[in-house]
């Protein structure tokens, strides 16, 4: 029978102690987090749609909240989440097709995911403020 004391002294997740933290790992974690943000973000879109359907008074209230600095910050975060998650999804699709598994390629794709997400979010934010 196995010794319970020996089993208790072993780490449960040695991978966290063995592997160094790399950008590909970080982008995988961020991809999961942005997916959660998008799930919550659909509530904000649903509130906006319900307010629009409820009449001008309710729409003005919700729009006033979304136009505040905190509302715009939340919406900017949701835009970044959407863009970052979409680019990460394209990266995962390439992996599903069998491309991009070489370590240097995977690191490059992770860097592209990070930079493109930030740049495209800035482009969308500037366009939103210029054309608003």
TrEMBL record:
Can you state the subunit structure given in the record? Answer: Part of an enzyme complex containing four subunits: a flavoprotein, an iron-sulfur protein, plus two membrane-anchoring proteins, SdhC and SdhD. The complex can form homotrimers.
Where, subcellularly, is it found? Membrane
Species whose genome carries this gene: Pleomorphomonas diazotrophica
Q: Identify its membrane topology class.
A: Multi-pass membrane protein
What biological process terms from GO does the record include? tricarboxylic acid cycle
**Binding residues for heme:** 85
This protein's UniProt keywords? Heme, Iron, Membrane, Metal-binding, Transmembrane, Transmembrane helix
Q: Where are the transmembrane segments?
A: 21-49, 69-87, 108-131
Q: Which GO terms describe its molecular function?
A: electron transfer activity; metal ion binding
Which protein are we looking at? Succinate dehydrogenase cytochrome b556 subunit
Q: What is the purpose of this protein? A: Membrane-anchoring subunit of succinate dehydrogenase (SDH).
Identify which cofactors the protein needs according to its UniProt entry. heme
What's the gene?
sdhC
The entry's free-text remark on the cofactor is: The heme is bound between the two transmembrane subunits.
Q: Name one Pfam family in it.
A: Sdh_cyt
Family affiliation? Belongs to the cytochrome b560 family.
Which residues fall in a coiled-coil region?
none
Q: Which domain of life is it from?
A: Bacteria
